[in-house]
């Protein structure tokens, strides 16, 4: 009996004081904040977070990651005062921490800092100050160039700044079907860029809508370009080299899903970076003077696209 | 005081290995991915070397996000895939995925087979009889590709680990 008690005590103590247990507890707060953020339960998240706030001189990255999730959740719910408060905490706390360690040396730090910057940019824009948002994100993009959060900042920067800007140059490392147009050759056309991926179900759903648009507006000057990039996969999720994926795209894939004659397909990762595209489909609509009029991550219906395209064709 | 005989008996009969399940959650990138939270656990039952233990990977997805099934109907999507690198002295007996569900995309005839909300993948791992369990780490990789009803996110690959800690007592001095 006594031995059993000793063993039981050992187990309990091991579980209580294991460093990994403590990691698990920190992770759980991040996870809990994430769940509440997606559910937009902002008040509940704030109560839980504030209930666990410790008056430490310098909060750790795990804590800041949890804070950043609350900021994100508040931005989802458009509670911009709450979003700004917690995004500022995550951002400023993250800036202090990177003075003592590289950004990517801690798995929670990129989350905290990246989300802090993202939400602050969104908040400034939501407050009606797009110039401040673009300036802030532009500066952050430069500050964090070459780090894991660069793409994240780039996307947010482009989301706010691409509309109204000149179309970035179109890069063509390779292509499917007909040779893609140059940026210059698109002048005087209304161009709809459809960023897609071969493994993306939502993209396949968008294609019939694009075909209908081509049939309706192709002879009025609508040009549809479908940039894609290589992802390192072929069918059934098998990993592939770039060469194997290109062979797959030109063979098995296009046999099953032929590239339509009305769409050219440049292949280049640069286009995704230059347009700030990280999700597919993303639709970018450009007017006859080469200015981006709509930047839309996600699908759009036929009617939604018609409402955007017709005014541009009439210009 | 515990007698020497009692200590010997204790070692012989209580050569119990306690696999302490410790959750580790991955805070995946919030931007490129819709934050699939991954938690690894080890079955907490008392086990002996030579037995089969069950490792679990719990995947929590945000609301309205799904990932493709491990056996999708559409061969052109990227299946959810858990792969393991079993350490020497262990053998993967089975990786068991849950049932997937139908997800109907608007304007698309065939429903996709997907996982939604929270799901758990189980791994049956056979431990060799003479395997020293203390500090055993089982590594794996989890590949998934997530979408909602309007947008898809780039495929993600996350390294995961199960940490198995033994509180096996080999020293009489501990008792």
Jot down its keywords.
heterodimer, A: 315 residues, alpha/beta, Serine Threonine Protein Phosphatase 5, Tetratricopeptide repeat, Glutaredoxin, 12 helices, globular, disordered N terminus, B: 175 residues, mainly beta, Immunoglobulin-like, 4-stranded antiparallel sheet, 1 helix, disordered C terminus
Helices and strands in order:
The complex is a heterodimer of chains A (315) and B (175).
Chain A: H1 2-17, H2 19-38, H3 42-51, H4 61-76, H5 80-97, H6 109-126, H7 130-143, H8 150-161, E1 174-176, E2 190-195, H9 201-217, E3 222-225, H10 242-256, E4 263-267, H11 269-274, E5 279-280, E6 282-286, E7 292-297, H12 302-313
Parallel strand pairs in A: 2-3, 3-4
Antiparallel strand pairs in A: 1-4, 2-6, 6-7
Chain B: H1 4-13, E1 37-42, E2 52-60, E3 66-68, E4 81-85, E5 90-96, E6 101-103, E7 112-116, E8 118-127, E9 136-144, E10 146-147, E11 152-153, E12 156-164
Antiparallel strand pairs in B: 1-2, 2-8, 3-7, 3-10, 4-9, 5-8, 6-7, 9-12
Question: What does this entry look like structurally?
Answer:
The complex is a heterodimer of chains A (315) and B (175). Chain A is an alpha/beta fold and 315 residues long. Chain A is 55% helix and 10% strand. Chain A has 2 domains: 15-161, Serine Threonine Protein Phosphatase 5, Tetratricopeptide repeat, CATH 1.25.40.10; 174-313, 3-Layer(aba) Sandwich (Glutaredoxin). In chain A, helix 10 links the parallel strand 3 and strand 4. In chain A, helix 2 runs antiparallel to helix 3 and helix 3 (42-51) packs antiparallel against helix 4 (61-76). Chain B is mainly beta and 175 residues long. Chain B has one domain: Immunoglobulin-like (Sandwich). Chain B is built from 1 helix and 12 strands, in the order αββββββββββββ. Chains A and B meet through helix 1, helix 2, helix 4, helix 6 and helix 8 of A and strand 11 of B.
